TrEMBL record:
GO-annotated cellular components: membrane protein complex; plasma membrane
One Gene Ontology term of the molecular function aspect: transmembrane transporter activity
Record-given protein name: ABC transporter ATP-binding protein
Organism: Phytoactinopolyspora alkaliphila
Keywords, alphabetical: ATP-binding, Nucleotide-binding, Transport
PANTHER family documented for this protein: ABC TRANSPORTER RELATED, IMPORT ATP-BINDING PROTEIN
Amino acid sequence: MTNTSQPGPPAASAVDLAKVYGFGDTQVIALGGVSVEFAAGQFTAIMGPSGSGKSTLMHCMAALDSPTSGKVYIGEVELSSLKDKELTRIRRDRLGFIFQAFNLVPTLNAKENITLPLDIAGQDIDKEWFDTVVRTVGLADRLKHKPNELSGGQQQRVACARALVSRPDIIFADEPTGNLDSRSGAEILAFLRNSVRELGQTIVMVTHDPGAAAYADRVLFLGDGQIVDEMFDPSAEKVLERMKNFDPIGQVS
Ligand SMILES: Nc1ncnc2c1ncn2[C@@H]1O[C@H](COP(=O)(O)OP(=O)(O)OP(=O)(O)O)[C@@H](O)[C@H]1O
């Protein structure tokens, strides 16, 4: 079913985005001219076989890597026009990140990890919002715990709260459930889903897992550095089926 109820400007977009690694015989076209919009308030999953360009697309969109050509916009701001300092500020103030490996600071407790980006930026903590985020991720009774006193799922919830607490325009999640057992993974995905529905968050998530993609509003399928398909209102079955038909050898990474 096509979702036509997405008004408003995109939270992020790319126009003819290309990324080429190497030269001559060793040249790899990781992205071959991708144009895409990520609607505000929507949860998008990016899928595709290994090497199809998922991470490259996400890293270019998240200002963690620079494209060979083409343009990336966060809201109305075009990234290639920015100096390093301005890019750092965009990443800090407007983007949130969730990685497969949690990336928490081991010496800080959960609360300190959650507020770290705001503390570094010298920004005040909105207490009410902090409480809402902590309640939503179910960490209220774990705030004093250090990462090694938390389960993997709890650590990833801390990382989710850290991404949400600064109210970023968009959160980029790179295989956020890749290191979790299926139950913890489902909790994180349900939480991400809720943060879109209830808090209006915009999320872009790279995943290999059709079950994880099913939590999204929209799935983009990448193949050989191009967007080859998209699906709205996905189910795990439909996504798996699409991935099976992906290429002649049915490679599902
Ligand atoms: N630093 C690099 N130098 C050279 N080639 C690279 C580099 N990074 C990525 N590539 C190549 O670009 C292509 C796209 O890689 P990318 O990591 O974006 O794919 P992916 O879909 O995220 O793969 P995976 O699912 O395996 O993580 C691949 O062919 C990869 O080998």
